[in-house]
Amino acid sequence: MDAKIFAEEKITEIREEVGKDKIISALSGGVDSSVCTVLAHKAIGDRMKVIFIDDGLMREGEPQEVQQIFTDLNITVEIVDAREEFFTSLQGKIDPEDKRKAFRNAFYTVFKREVLNSEAKFLLQGTIAPDIIETKGGVKTQHNILEQIGIDPQKGYGYKVLEPLKELFKPEVREVAVAIGLPEEIAQRMPFPGPGLAARVIGEVTPERIGLVRKATVIVEEEIVLPLNPFQAFAVLMSDKGTGVEEGKRKFGDIIIIRSVESMDAMTAEPTQVPWEILFKLCKRITTEIPEVSRVAYELTSKPPATIEYI
Ligand code: XMP
User: Fold this and answer.
1) pLDDT at 14 > cutoff 90
2) Domain of 243, in residue numbers
3) Which atom from ligand 1 is nearest to the alpha carbon of 263?
């Protein structure tokens, strides 16, 4: 694939398909949706409205950071605060697939409203090949897959979906990102799942539990991502408690798992060989800075048999 030619072809295709209509772009700040947004902006300019849904499941400071990156590219991003809606839809859900479906429901409900308000006929999203392969294969319900599993977005939600990257794998998307001039921090951005930190909380997703895994994620990013630049590294909050000891007394504290993997395209992955000193420091920081946590463990499983995310 020649990334420049691919980009030009997609810009033309988007322009032809959309005609005089409007697009709404579902930007998350990941490389996939960022590339789509820039391609569509080149195709139809300000006839596209770009929204970033703040679902309350993002990493620390992420909505504002993404908005700023796009402001620097002269693309206006509107942040839609839907935190309450997402937490309400996830309330009481324990089963991983129920959580994914609840997330998808909230996602498309918020979008439906935004699309209706903006009179757009198209929803642009950064679906890539593995999302389709894994959803169709029954591995997991990706939030952004509808048509491929028989849900007609036109009938169900009232708009058409544009997915210019659906044949590509991650390394190719990164090539296109570079070819169309996206900054390095986007082109090389670590993948982050659509359901955000909800994919990293086992058991019920509540604002408090998300807050806890968010704090642990900041520490993982400082201690593993910065020095080692793995394909992905993150923290996961377990649903069970582990026995700990505090001031001579037993306490049942939270359990955090650290996952760091090396991969080319996320279809297979190997655990990162993180030096012991880093792991040890990470554990000390998490248990000191997040007193609710009494245990930290490092995950050693490859994909397969495990997936990268926990739900
Ligand atoms: P798994 O957990 O299936 O993840 O090994 C493979 C890659 O996909 C990311 N991921 C998602 N991305 N929506 C997305 O946009 C999702 O629902 C989703 N689930 C997983 C994951 O972070 C990894 O890079």
Assistant:
1) yes
2) 201-298
3) 24
Q: Which atom of ligand 1 is nearest to the CA of 199?
A: 19
pTM of the model: 0.89
Q: Quick one: 121 and 34 in the same domain?
A: yes
Q: Any idea which of 127-136, 197-206, 207-216, 249-258 has the lowest mean pLDDT?
A: 127-136
In this structure, the answer to whether residues 182 and 213 fall within a common structural domain is no
Distance 308 CA to ligand 1 centre (A): 7
Ligand 1 centroid, distance to 294 Cα (angstroms): 28
Give 69 Cα–ligand 1 centroid separation in angstroms: 23
Question: If you average pLDDT over residues 145-149, what whole number do you get?
Answer: 58
d(CA 303, CA 311) in angstroms, rounded, equals: 13
Q: Residue 39: inside a domain, yes or no?
A: yes
Using one digit for the tens of pLDDT, what is the confidence trace for 51-61?
999 999 999 99
Sheet holding 160-162, edge to edge: 77-81, 48-54, 23-26, 122-124, 160-162
3-state secondary structure 165-230: CCCCCHHHHHHHHHHCCCCHHHHCCCCCCCCHHHHHECCCCCHHHHHHHHHHHHHHHHHHHHHHCC
Give residue ranges with CB within 6 A of ligand 1. 131, 134, 140, 142-143, 191, 193-195, 199, 232, 266, 303, 307-309
